[in-house]
Amino acid sequence: MERDYSEYQPTTYDRYLQYRSNRNGVRLDYFVNKVYFHPERKNFTVSVDPHKENDSMQDEIDEYERDVARREGKSLSVSPSQDDPEDTQNHAELTADRREQFSEMQKRYQLVSSPFLEIDGITRNNLDAETINVLSGAYIRMNYGEGILDFVYADFVTPLRQNMMLLESLQYLAESEKEKSQSNTEDWPEPKTIQKIYNETQAIVEDFYAYESTFILLHDVAYASLYSAVCPPLFENGYWGDLKRLEWYGNYLLTLQNEYLEMLEFCYDEDFWPEVLGALYPSERLYLYRKSKGLPLYFDRKEEFLLNKSIMGGDKMPYGLKSEEFRQMLNRVVNPLSDAEKEFAKKYHIPGPKVSLRTNTFLSVGYEANTISDMLELEFTKMLEQGIRFRKCKRCGKYFIMKGNYDTTYCDRIAKGEIRTCQELAAIDNYKAKVADNEALAVYSKYYKRYSARLKVRQIKDEDFKKWRYQAIIKRDECTDGKITLQELIGWMEAAFPNRKPQRKEE
Description:
Helix content: 40-55%
Largest sheet: 6 strands, antiparallel
Strand order of the largest sheet: 4-7-3-2-10-9
Shape: extended
Order of helices and strands: HEEEHHEEEEHHHHEHHHEHHHEHEEHHHH
Distance between the termini: 126 Å
Strand content: 5-15%
Number of strands: 12
Number of helices: 18
């Protein structure tokens, strides 16, 4: 029996998923990324999908163009290319942009490897090529929690507004041209809502073209955070205009930001309902958070179990080897195969038997994460497994990762408009407060500055100043402990290097 959902009332979870799933011509899961966690090092590696670039897609593109030509009854011919000065200029500008973007990604994130990284002075690929996303094919390493913090504090609003203004201007110009040209709207057909697909290659290549045009539009938004860059969206043809799709995608980003900031507060903030939540583990607090939102208490994670001779999941077998052991394995002499090995390889059709039989096979467990939501949820749940702690900085108000047993209430970021980290600024503030509250310390600081100035102009010898400083610290502490009075301290300080009276000239 066919079901009619026209009167169906969506559940809370249905509405939750609507803002995190492909919708209205926006695909969120175009890239297929792999994530590998290293619990002993408290970090993880993101392997970014390498297959969404022109060089990787070239065979499919060639086949697609031949297929289109056959269907249209045309011959696919290649005319000799001529350099167009305008095209050359555009290419140079794009190349400069790519280099700048890649340089910025290198500064912000730990790129373990990339098609565009130089190795021994040789670049594996070339940023002069038609690169779409400079992080395609990269391996990026992060500590637990860094990806989430990078995302929740990213500025998406500024590039989103700029893109919205641009699209609104383009839409206005298009509508003006339409009105000026003629009133006959047949020359301005609406986008097709149904596209006929003939084969898999066509679907792959047309998705690729849609992604390429989307990334050109959204690259400033994408590069605002790591996860938005490695999980870029695809705006499908035949749906809303770009302006509405951009608005929907912007809401998706901001919804996720708000959700994970709320989760950090609910699960980790020591000042959030401490009388109720203070004694609970973050996982217990997450349980209450999900219950309060009407969300499931389970998380789906797509795990990949991989057997490979080059990818290691650790430094102990069966996961991997330490660096020295791995080098020894690569450099060891491979003796001829024994009769038993030859017979075994022949019987079981083992290709390249020397490599297959004589080198270690490593086990690694990874996860597939195709959307920003996947990445955030995966990292957050892994943090709970590893007992990672967050705290809100008492100075800038942003969350930071607690490292080991080091207990601090200030982060090591440099806040906007500052040149020092919050930790450094807090230390300066604490010292000033300590000086203000401690009269003995204020006296010591006053005379230290006075005698340092004399030292610079050589009115005081260096060895005399060092001796005085040692004794002054002892006197300062004695005054603080009440062993001598403040006036006695001042008197001692004055007598250390008395002012010299100028000699009178003889008449």
